[in-house]
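S.,

Sequence below, as promised.
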Amino acid sequence: MTEHLPILIVLAPLLGAVFAALTSWFWPKLSLPVVLVGLAVSFVSSILLVFQVPETGVIHYQLGGWGKQKEYADMVVGIQISVDHLNGLVLAAITTIALLTAIYSQPTVERELKGQQRYFFSLFSLLVAGLLGITITGDIFNLYVFMEIAALSSYALIAYGKKRAYMASFNYLIMGTMGACLYLLGVGFVFVKAGTLNIENLSQIIPQTLQDSQAVFVGFVLIMVGAWAKMAFFPMHGWLPNAYTYAPTASGALLAPLATKVSVYAMLRIMVTVYSIDYVINSPNIQTTALLLSTIAILVGSFFSLTQTNLRKIACYFVVSEIGYMVGGAWLANEPGLKGAIYHVVADAAMTSAIFMVIGCIIYRLGQADLKKIDGLYYKMPVTFIALVITMAALIGVPPTCGFFSKFYLIEGAAQAGTWHFVIALLISSLVKAIILFRIIEIGYNKVPNPAKEGNEAIPRKEAPLSMLIPTVVVALGLIALGLATDTLITDFIAHIVPKIPAS
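The prediction came back faster than expected:
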């Protein structure tokens, strides 16, 4: 049974989506339990594989009984999925966050989508299946297929929201379609020259025989730009703040931490595995452009978050900024930069999940998420407030949270490359987040007199439901746990995927 764990990771939530859609017609309350079962199976499978990979190395799984092409003796023709040190971590992050978010989502879905939630959990599970497929596939075309499965689910989940959700979803659709078309066009260029779509074989063919091919280079540029559009990298980020702000709480809590991070993973997979870091280093113009755009993305996301009063909009601009962290770290193309970028994919997924869960709890309890209207949040929702402070501390980069260690590697990589504008942007971003944290503390704690003092009326304490609060606390505490496990993650996983690169 264990040999089928790779396919179970994707198949379980996919079947969960199908059965949830079917049961929604006859017994709507059964949709969520069905989805939870599928996500739980996927979670267990991913965790087992994560512990297996360091012992066995790359795990391959082939669907069907296809033979081999004569031209490439080692090329498996058909659908192949693989689990290695890189995507093992990402798979574990996706399944963990998805399962916790599904548990978290029930109260918000019942309140926000009353009478309209028939297909919500089915789309929820389908999105997770698409994201897992992107991560685990061993084929660059199938990566596109799963990318579109995830995208179509995302559009629908955002459109479930109110007010400007339809327009936000439409803007996302336009940009997502453009990104997908560019990616697919790039795949076409690669296939014409290499004759294969298998990632493992491309990793041998391109560096060895197609290093100087103009078609392969054009394919690389198109794939990168397509991935950038999908992940909302500056200046293609305009759709993200509104999409995640106006989406239902449960949709935002799933999409914000996972959708963009998986796109970053796809970029890293193409860069590190398919083309190699040497190829990136030998493309100085693209490298310089990517680093400059990353710096601007960090600054734009940071400064726009400083001007917002809606907590969800603030968190959305945090996402824009953090994407700049990851893209910049990857394009530094040195060991500490790549380690920081890969580690930050997992760390930021957890941090973004925590911040959106916290905000969702506040919205559920107070009915809004305006920074100016959370007076006394510490007294009204003390557990949620503490979770918010921990999350913000991680986003700032306070030790021992995971945010500190990922930023440490990114700054080390930027310093090694002499890219000081990137270092300055990282420091400014942390400073902006610290300012926002102090504003939250001032409003949530200091602006309301201590109710324990004589003469002050007691402020009623009422947290969000336990099904929301417990996942929120788990993810918030997980930010510290991830930080404490940094050495293990770097040594046992990330170091195996990052090639040895001489310091420039």
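The two ends are 47 Å apart (CA to CA).

Coffee later?
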